[in-house]
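In the previous chapter we treated chains in isolation. Here, by contrast, the input contains two separate entities that must be folded as one system, with a combined length of 530 residues.
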Amino acid sequence: MQPIIDFITSPITIAYIVLIHVVFFALQGAAAVLVLAERKVAAFSQQRLGPYRVGWWGILQPIADIVKLLFKEELRPKAADFWLFYLAPVISATTAFAAFVVIPFGPPTDLFGLLPKPINLQGMDVNVAVLIVFAITSMGVYGIVLAGWASNSKYSLLGGLRSSAQMLSYELSYGLALASAIVLGNSLSLRTIVDAQQSTALGGVLPTGWFLWPAFLGFVIYMIAGVAETNRAPFDFPEAEQELVAGYHTEYSSMSFALFFLAEYINMVTVSAVATNLFLGGWHWPFPLAWGWGFGVLNWLLKVSFLLFFYIWMRWTLPRYRYDQLMTFGWKWLLPAAVVNVILVAAGVIYFS
Amino acid sequence: MIPLETILFYLFGAATVASSLAVVTQRNPMHSVLFLIASFAALAGLYINLDSPFTAVTQIIVYAGAIMVLFLFVVMLLNAPREDVPSPYGPAYVTLTTGPRKAFALLSVVLLVELALAIRQFVSAQAPSGPLAAEHVSSVRQIGIAIFTTYSLAFEATSVLILVAMVGAVVLAKKKL
């Protein structure tokens, strides 16, 4: 028994347990902040004030939203498939949280000398992290598809069908865009890829090491495919209000409805975080890491926040595509561009190495 | 004390067998598809237990992620959950004519022989072990080199085969191209 007790009470184990909890609750907090940010940015885009009654300038609005959702009645259509109907939101939320486990968000640190050796700021350091994120996010589609089917309603089913077709189509471009960063970083570990991008020019002013520069096309493809994967506007076909009432979550209410939204916002965070790590140098710019690991985390948070703002900005700026335009764009433009990008990047890597 | 690997092996193995059995015993095709996904996921767990995370992740991406979504798509489009309604003509096999029934019987015998051969080979084969074997399986670089040099002919043949199947499916599905 003694080795087990030693393992559980060692500072490193406790640090990792705390870290996992921090990531879990930070993700929930991020979802709440994003709900508010979405409403505020939408209001700004439409020259309104947005929520301003709850708390100071409306910053407690997400809490009011959650309390309202908690007290709503949980409804289930009579003809719905009982197990799948309640399983679907759980799958959505679980895959959203699980994908974030392998994403690093800061340099190794010993937390101001609290620990005997530095730990990595991420749930788990896996050597195939990029692929794990890809695998788990591709499992997330089941939540939406099952929700659409189990509700036993036309609109939900159409939403689920659209979502499965859309995610399959854009997953290819998404994977190929990931491949360009993998080739540049010569690794499948997100931490190694981030550390391969730390070179700067002009005394740390210009981030020349970013994979954004050699793989700019890859970054653009990644962001477009990422928006489509998370079902956000202008690719929000699974829940197109004007055509499908609310798409796959038409029949959901109360917390099971909230779980879908939680999953959507966490998926946004995951896509932005992976983009930051793969193309924007992770925690390496603008503040130098020599100032301390906290600045590294701050760098990372700044980049992720900017990408998330970009997401919301895009939603309130661009109108939704038509469904055939979505498919044409995905297969005839995005996929060929992704293939060209991978070949160019790979050729460049071989030529310059 | 039992090693953790052994416990995990039995856990994932039991999950794989149980969910695979559930695939064929379910009456609702939608539930069958989901149990198939669960079985693939448990199989991925077994791969991780064998120190080959890359194979496990590929298993999830390709089978559980891509192929099963297509399965679900087709099941949803066919709107098939009517299988649990009992047929007025009795069990399903009665509706098959004698020709297909004989073919199925033959095929099942072939499958049995194949299984027996596979098990015999597996028992006699010496499984690679030690840290070197794990290194070989888990390294993406090793897998890539093996695919594109030693097994490049098989790899290219497979890709041509898949392309042919795809073109064939398109031709069959679309009367007018």
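The mean pLDDT of chain B is 79. The radius of gyration of chain B is 21 Å. Compare these points with the single-chain example from earlier in the chapter.
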